[in-house]
Fold GntR family transcriptional regulator.
Amino acid sequence: MSARSSLSRPSADGPVRDGIPEHGRIPRYYAVKVGLLEVIAELGEGSALPAERELCERFEVSRATVRQAVGELVLEGRLSRRQGSGTFVAPPKIVQPLALVSYTEGLRRQGIEPGRNVITLERRAAGPALAADLRIEPADEIIHIERVLLADAERVGLESTYLRAARFPTLLDVFDPEQSLYACLRERLGVVFDGAEERVETVLATPREALLIGTNPALPMLLMHRISWGPDGEPFERVRSLFRGDRLSFMTRLGRVE
C-alpha cells in the first residue's frame, strides 16, 4: 500500500478519526499531520525532523501541504523551529498545577529548575482597574513586580504581580525578585493564602511581550488572571501571567459534586 493510499483510509478511532469532518473526506494536510505524529514518536525528543523534500516524497504531497501540517505541530508545541538549524521534536510540555502553589513549587515538583529575569520593580498608584480588583482607592499605592519566567533557563512566560503596598510596607526590603514571591510572603511576612479566583484564556502576545518572552507574536499564548485573598476575605494580590502555549499546559483535580 502506498503512503498516499494509507493516508486516505481512516482508522476506526484515534487522531485521524477525530479529525474527519462530517462529509467524511480527510483534509490532506491533516492526514500528513497524523503521519508526522508517528514520525515524531519514532524520532524522540530533540531529534531533527526529516527534510521537507523527504517528507513530501514519503507522504506523496506538495510542499505547501507538508508546511501546513508542520506549522500546526509547531503551534501545538510538538515541534520547534530553530532559525538556521531546522525543525526538531520538542520536549514534553511543562505541566503547571492550577492550585495555590507558586510557579517555583510547581516546576520543582517536576524536576525543572525555575528562574526569573526582573523587568519591573516599582511602587505606583493603583489606578481605577487595579483599585477595583484590590478594593482600594485609585490613588493608593501598589507594588508592581514584573518578571520573565524561566524553566531550565528557557523563557516560558511573563508575570506581572500587583500587591497592596499598605499591606506589605516592608516587602521590597526583604524580597529577592529572582526568588519565589510566595515563599517570601509566607516565610518572611507571615502571609496566609486562603483562596483565589483564576481565569484562563488564549491570546496573542503584544510585540513587547513577545520580545521579552522570545516567542513569535503569531503563536497562541495562555493568559491567566488571578486575584488572591487571605482569611479575612480581602483581596491583596492580582497576578497577570502570560505563558507560551507551546511549552506549558495546566492541570487541576476535580472532585465529585454532591
In short: Residues 3-89 form a domain with the Arc Repressor Mutant, subunit A fold (CATH 1.10.10.10). Strands lie at 79-82, 86-89, 94-97, 114-125, 141-151, 154-164, 195-204, 220-229, 235-244, 248-251. The longest helix spans residues 28-43. The CA atoms of residues 205 and 217 lie 6 Å apart.
